[in-house]
Amino acid sequence: MIGNYLADSGRRDSVVLATKYRSTVGPGVNDLGASRYHIVRAVENSLRRLRTDRIDLLYCHSWDQDTPIEETLRAVDDLIHQGKIVYAGASNFPAWVLARGLWTSDVRNLYRFEAIQSVFNILQPGLGREMIPFAADHEVAVIPYSPLASGMLTGQHGASGKAVVGSKFDARDDSKGGGLKSRYFNDPTFAAVEKFTAIARNHGQPAVRLALQWVSEFPGVTAPIFGARKIEHINGVLDAWSESAPAEVMAEVREVAGEFESRSPMTYPPGSGQAFGTLPASAATK
Prior knowledge:
This protein has helices at residues 2-9, 36-50, 69-81, 95-108, 131-137, 171-175, 179-184, 187-203, 207-216, 231-240, 247-263, 281-284; strands at residues 18-21, 55-60, 85-91, 113-117, 141-142. The chain has 286 residues and is an alpha/beta fold. Helix 3 links the parallel strand 2 and strand 3. Helix 8 packs antiparallel against helix 11, helix 9 (207-216) crosses helix 10 (231-240) and helix 9 (207-216) crosses helix 11.
């Protein structure tokens, strides 16, 4: 769909087109990972599906402990020299793995990771402790995803511990093992969301605006991204981003976020092949 739109509209050069490799895409032993074999095949398949001659930003979806980082970077470096990739990025990396990658690029004279894309929001603030300051120091762009905590920060779920029917926390989450509910459905999160949404109501501000603005104003963040499953989701985000909340409102938001971070265990960095870390069992239960 994206490839057809870009090709038919003639707008290919007006967008930055990004995609990823690493996750499982088939049953074969080489249908996953960050090996040269998988990367080359993934890029060729993406170029064909997207009907384009190059990928502007190619992310490694998560770090691969079974593949040497030099193999990954050299494969991407070759593809950049071939003109099939413009920039390389990393996603869901711990800071020490990104540091290893940057060092390898430096000593081996390879194109480096220019961006890091990982989860970051008021309820998942772990990226801000180490990775964002590190990335800023090394001039790596920070492009956080899930600024609304998969919709948790809209307050729609309340403190019931029951997912809203049709939401990401409902059947879709159950089919994937219940990762969102285990991550967000707990007492500290419910309490923080209640305080956060109260600020939004008291000041007549959309909760979406406050959540997005908290991420975008965080020192070192380059550009937050968001996902949407419905047209009204997109319209809501565009409306929220059309204005900015006053500084005094954001000061209250930062106070709630700081209090939550100081009392709640962090789930970043993730392990190999993961997008999130794992909470201790005692903290993940209500």
